[in-house]
Amino acid sequence: MAIATREGQLHRGDGTRINYRVLGERGPWMLLCNGVTTTHEFWEGAVQRWPERRIIQWDYPGHGTSSPAGTPPSAHLPALAQVCVDLLDTLEVERASAIGFSMGSQVALLAGLEHPHRFDAVVSLLGPAGGLFDTALWGVGGKTAAALLERLPGRSVHLLHGALNLAARSPATYAAGRLLGLFGPETSKSDLHKVTAHLSRVDAPTVREMLLSAGALDLRPRLASLRPPLLIITGERDSFAPASTVGRPMKRHAPQAELVVLREGTHGSLFGHADLIAASIDRFLERTRSASGGAVEAVPGAD
After folding, report:
1. The domain containing residue 114 runs over which residues?
2. 138 backbone φψ class: left, alpha, beta (φ>0; ψ -120 to 50)
């Protein structure tokens, strides 16, 4: 059965337009925060498993159907965290659970830290609390990318974007992504096409500002003071936000959090492991509603 959907727009003071959509007509509210360069399509497998919830999805500036950032600060993570709250205000939603994938983990965490009274819970899904590039691709790849973005002349960002688009359309991209551990066999070539097709449409200057902001943001020292309950979902085989250097260390910074480790999880697990992810989030949210959650580690599929 199709999920009822309605769409709207949020306008920022600098002219940035944020497009959003609401799925569902009943149940607790969830607000989803995308990864950088992704859009709502990345969540399709999970949202189909949440028919009893109302879900807010939105496109970052320069992504999907939202406009490019009107000014650079609108692409920075503090502004994105504020958008989370402004969306709740626009929709007259008192409280919601914030769920962030990849870079969206930083957005959701920052929203929960800055506006704890508006969020029932926060879920960090395959994403960091520290700088986005610090541990990506074993640290070396991420830091190399960060250095390139920092030094690249302004107009050259369009050339880089064009080169990435050409590379993304190469038949070798799927094999390369598998080899690098960005995704596993659970991600099909058609799944990857959704990501690469959207990559060609993003606004490169906006994305650059967003990435630089995410690379500089380290929320780990603040995690112990996070008031909403926190669930960390991490993947053992995720080369972008590995369990060993991101997920488990995040748990040490937030001892009150719950930790779920996807034994076969990669950065593309929202495609092939959506059932495990959705079920883990459901169980966590039900525990937070009954105030019986605890700081435990679960490994789905281990039985």
Report:
1. 5-298
2. left
What pTM does this model have? 0.89
Number of other residues whose CB lies within 10 A of the CB of residue 253 = 17
Q: Give the CA distances from residue 188 to residues 45, 56, 178, 191, 202, in Å, rounded to whole numbers and listed in that order.
A: 13, 26, 11, 5, 22
Structure tokens of 20?
């959003």
Residue-wise burial string across 48-66, b where 16 or more C-beta atoms lie within 10 A, e elsewhere: eebeebbbbbbbbbbbbeb
Q: How far apart are CA 280 and CA 282, in angstroms?
A: 5
Residue 213 structure tokens: 């902001």
What's the domain count of the chain?
A: 1
Per-residue model confidence as pLDDT tens for the chain (303 residues):
567 899 999 999 999 999 999 999 999 999 999 999 999 888 999 999 999 999 999 999 999 999 999 999 999 999 999 999 999 999 999 999 999 999 999 999 999 999 999 999 999 999 999 999 888 866 766 666 767 677 666 655 654 455 555 555 667 777 877 877 778 887 888 887 777 788 888 999 999 999 999 999 999 999 999 999 999 999 999 999 999 999 999 999 999 999 999 999 999 999 889 999 999 999 999 999 876 434 444 444 432
Instruction: Note whether residue 72 is domain-resident.
Output: yes
H or E element in which residue 20 lies: strand 17-23
Q: 36, exposed or middle or buried, with CB in 10 Å at 0-12, 13-18, 19+? A: buried
- CATH number of the domain bearing residue 221: 3.40.50.1820
Q: In this structure, is residue 184 part of a structural domain?
A: yes
In a domain, 240, yes or no: yes
Helix (H) or strand (E) holding 184: none
Residue 303 lies in a domain: no
